[in-house]
Amino acid sequence: MSKVFVVGGSGRVATDLIKDLIENGNEVVAGSRNPEKIIKLDGVSAVKLDLHAEMEEIARIMDGCDVVYFVAGSRGKDLLQTDAFGAVKTMMAAERDGIKRYIMLSSMYALQPQMWSKYKALADITDYNIAKFFADNYLIHNTKLAYTIVQPASLTEEPGTGMVTFGDGKDTTNPISDVAKVLADTLKYKETIGHIIMMRSGKTPIDDALSNVGDPVAYNNAGLTD
């Protein structure tokens, strides 16, 4: 069992993620600017977390946890201070606290900007992808965290199938519950450390996909080549 800190704990993905983490036997501390909106379950503690705060304050709130999930998002309203630098401050805070494991919810092709114009859904959220580009690169190149970055396709409210495709594919959507399940179950597989997992709907059971992720992809060029 791990004590897990969920950044952005009142969001759509976070709600399903927290359920899955508890089901997997973990203890959860969920942080949000609106802690009253965090799902109420046994094993879940809700705390107030403002990503505009100083890094030292964020570290104080996260202290004592073993794992950090970053699933916060401003929906385009606060990209620099939440999606970009807010994420970076949680990485700094994790390292300050001695937390090793860090799992990031990102965006499809966030590290490959040459792909954004090829998909309308990505072109429509270019500013968000820019924020994730810098946050993901900081995680990879400027920390010593045992990271996994999950890059889903467009999120939908459809019921989850428990089936995914990792890597390239034709489907451009993911049910939110499937994204949450991949995030939660990533913690069970040490093989996912150092991986950037691009996911979309597919025909492979999530556990099978996670247990066969293969070797990590090198992004030493910051994702600027095909």
From TrEMBL:
InterPro entries: NAD(P)-bd_dom, NAD(P)-bd_dom_sf. It comes from the Bacteria. It holds the Pfam family NAD_binding_10. Residues 8-188 form the NAD(P)-binding domain. Gene3D superfamilies: NAD(P)-binding Rossmann-like Domain (3.40.50.720). This is NAD(P)H-binding protein. It comes from Limosilactobacillus fastidiosus.
